[in-house]
Amino acid sequence: MLLSALTLLCPQLELAPPPILVNSGPAMAQDIQARRPNIIYIMADDLGWGDLSVQGQVRFETPRLDQMAAEGLRFTSHYSGSTVCAPSRAVLMTGKHTGHVAVRGNREYKPLGQFPLPKDEVTVAELLKAVDYETAVIGKWGMGPPGTEGAPLEQGFDHSFGYNCQRNAHFFYRDFLFRDDEKIEVDREQWTHELLTEDALSWLGERKADVPFFLYLPYTIPHASIEAPQELIDPFVGQWGDERPFPGRHYSAQQTPHAAFAAMVTQLDADVGKILDLLREMGLAESTLVIFTSDNGPHAEGGADP
To answer: Fewer CB in a 10 Å sphere around the end CB: N or C, the chain?
Structure first.
């Protein structure tokens, strides 16, 4: 859970109502503020435990995540809150297990979206915002569409961009996304994963060193339609011999699903690297806690093969 991880790694954070400080002048207040880390929580969608080379993948490499693992901590007994998307995200945001959190399945909300997270649920974004963090969620939400109490801007986030409905997030070539509460048009030829990374880098680039921030980055790849630009797929074609094409049906047809999956994961790795590089360029690497994980384990949809 994000709340428990933050408490363990950053005990200086006051994630509960702070105690009254007696004789605490401006110097003490500035010292507390200076020790608050920025937080970036990156979560892949249905990435498997063995899909990174640091975890044993040998068909392709994930050098930036391998480097991150080598330089940081690996939580090898860290478990998802649920086996499916919406409740695993609700557990992450609230710190409650699935016996207590209101979102307990991928329940649809018509015409678009999933069952809303109730307003009285307290999210980690709300707690951090209460202690003057700037907050953003970029990627896949799945806990309430715009106009409901579960929408990101109602749950502690200053900015949101990407897929509100996780059903739409199964495909990476779409004609619309959501920016905050507004539905915006997207070029159907645009691989949407690139737009998520661009927005994350843009938002991070606008941050100031003296204001702490929390970026929740729930990427949509590599679940579930195995789709990527062909130029990213081509370097991996042939590594699995003559692949069995995926015919399509519900998800998109894919001639080389293994190669396409490798392309998706290696691009995910490269984009995590872009974020780490930007933090160094901005002088924020030493003051930013970056966590990478997956939401609920590998999948076998759209031609994926764990």
So the answer is: C
240 and 291 Cβ atoms separated by less than 8 Å: no
CATH number for the domain spanning 92: value is 3.40.720.10
Question: How confident is the model over 113-122, as pLDDT tens digits?
Answer: 999 999 999 9
- Say if 54 falls within a structural domain: yes
Q: What is the CA radius of gyration of the chain?
A: 19
Q: Is 26 part of a structural domain of the chain?
A: no
Please state, in angstroms and rounded to a whole number, the distance separating the CA atoms of residues 127 and 272: 25
Beta carbons of 304 and 246 less than 8 angstroms apart: no
Q: Which range marks the domain in which residue 243 is found?
A: 36-294
Dihedral pair phi/psi, residue 185, rounded to 5° = -80, 145
How far apart are alpha carbons 118 and 95 in whole angstroms?
Answer: 14
Q: Which two tokens stand for residue 253?
A: 């047809």
Task: Work out how many domains the chain is built from and give that number.
Answer: 1
Beta bridge partners of 140: 163
